[in-house]
Amino acid sequence: MRFPIRIDAIWRAPLLAGGATARNSYVALTDEGVHFRFGLLFNRTIPYEQVNAAFPRSWPLLYGVGWRSNLRGVIGLIGSYHDVVEVRLKTRSRAWALIFPCDRIAVSLEDPERFVEALSERLGKPVPADVSALARPRRSPQRAKVLTPNPSPERGRGDTKAAPKAATGAAKANGSKAASPPKAAPRKAAAARKPAARSAGRTPVRARRSRPS
After folding, report:
1. Phi, psi at residue 5, to the nearest 5°?
2. Dihedral pair phi/psi, residue 107, rounded to 5°
3. Total number of domains in the chain
């Protein structure tokens, strides 16, 4: 069973330098193992006993297109940044030109979902329920942490004084000003007593009666 390597039209001309064409760029599941062929620069068969798993993965733009290696175990046979599958090996070996270490082979395929299903069946491992969903992994949204008070019944009377301070600190952390306590209303009664006290210290002035002439 052969699965063609996906080569986008924009990369066909540059990949011709390595002899990569539609006829000699594929991954085949043979009786001996998984056979990788990508142009004239990569042609190798990995026995099934050395294959651990296969699953879709992403391939960033920084990694580049063509025959790639990060010198840390990853070998890329990339003709497109889309539909990339990683075949992970059990042990590290020299799978390319006896120079580059290899324990993971990333390859872009025309039908990555079917390849993962067929290889999983060959390995005797369960096939993922939804392979197409794994082809484009998405980051799970981060849930906002909600801080809720955790009052305990063991607290004494001192918590009544600490409560306004805690509320003020929470308001400053949120960037808002804490509400100040309402000011006491002026005492009208005290103001009314002052004129009364002044008038009490003075003697009333009687109107003089005019005598008849």
Report:
1. -80, 135
2. -140, 140
3. 1
